[in-house]
Design goal:
The complex is a heterodimer of chains A (281) and B (135). Chain A has 8 helices and 8 strands; from the N terminus they run H-H-H-H-H-E-E-E-E-E-E-E-E-H-H-H. With 281 residues, chain A is an alpha+beta fold. Chain A has 2 domains: 188 residues, Four Helix Bundle (Hemerythrin (Met), subunit A) (Up-down Bundle), CATH 1.20.120; 53 residues, no CATH class. In chain B, helix 1 packs antiparallel against helix 2. The chains are: A alpha+beta (281), B mainly alpha (135).
Amino acid sequence: MSTETINQDLETTKNNEVSWDGGSEPFKASYGKLMMWYFIMSDAFTFAGFLIAYGALRFSVPTWPEPDFVFQSFPGGLTGMPLIFVTLMTFVLIASSATMVRAVQEGQRENKKGVVFWLLMTILGGATFLGCQAWEWHTLIVKEHMTLSENPFGRHIESGTYLAGDGYDIQAGDTFEAGAYYLIHKKDGEWNQIPYKTADGEIKRQELGPPAFGSLFYFITGFHGFHVLSGLILLLIIAINAASGLYVKRKNGYEMVEKVGLYWHFVDLVWVFVFLVFYLL
Amino acid sequence: MGHVSYEEAKKTVFKGLVLLALITVAEVAIALLGKGYIISGFYLPKWLIYIAMIGLSIYKAYFIMGEFMHLKYEVKGLVSSILLPFILLVWAIVAFLWDGAWWGEKRLEYKTEFEIETQGVIDDAELEDTIELLD
């Protein structure tokens, strides 16, 4: 915003005449930037609706899967590393947000090379995040068999002793307390629900966890992943446009980069809350 | 936007990155410490974990919106037209979580009446078969 325009705005306010003739910007932001902000606001409400639905469903069942138990795998067949992989993913997304700020700053200085470089860094970060998410989904779908309607992550509501092993972590004779969590594996395509004896001497089987967990996880992280993918496509388009010199001609401080930047930060912002709700609480 | 020099602005980005990364690490550390992963037998009270997590996440959101999305430096009217509608969420969160808890109560009542007596209980003959299969 140049001082000239500001002075002009002040004058129009003083004269109180031409304010309705258009051309003045009461919010000191262009139409495009303003509309990007309002789009972000409405999209935030969509995500809020999803996350609140997660909360309501979680509150409506007696037990819920424990995130440090569900998300404990790490690439390379490693396990028993609670939340480490998702922390890495989060860091990658935050870093891509920071590189995006750099791209916007270079744009304001009309530095074409800088804009293209930092946009490419941002694309790299976003693509890495998406790759991590694909790996996480793959683990849950292929190794742990979680589906939209079936959730193998359960929690005991009473203490007891297992009567058989599952060939993974559980041995016959293992005892557990109320609140202990478990993963039910598949055997010959069927759920292998291990029988156990409760303290009262009753014999029961492990129950599958609350079915809503699977669909909530896939829908909410999937919807976020879809936003990341759309963001990547937008970034790619503006990177090509910037490299071709299109924005140099516009002489508006690479405003398009700024607008896409707002969207990209929003994707990071939503992840803060998805991370909070799914992995931390 | 001309409110700070280019060099200063560059520094802010780096500082922001470090700050957000540190907060994320702190959140995970609190989660793991509070649930007894780091020091065995040591737990933090659940409410303390929840307050810390929600507080730190809101601070992260404030920082991303304020600095990275530049909202701190926009005109007041623009800022309020974006932030004020979020007050509605206070209602939504309270109402839906409350309702969720009520569904839970009803679910338990229903289960006690019709289901809980027989739920998951298996007879001895079936159990013998299973244990044989598993071994």
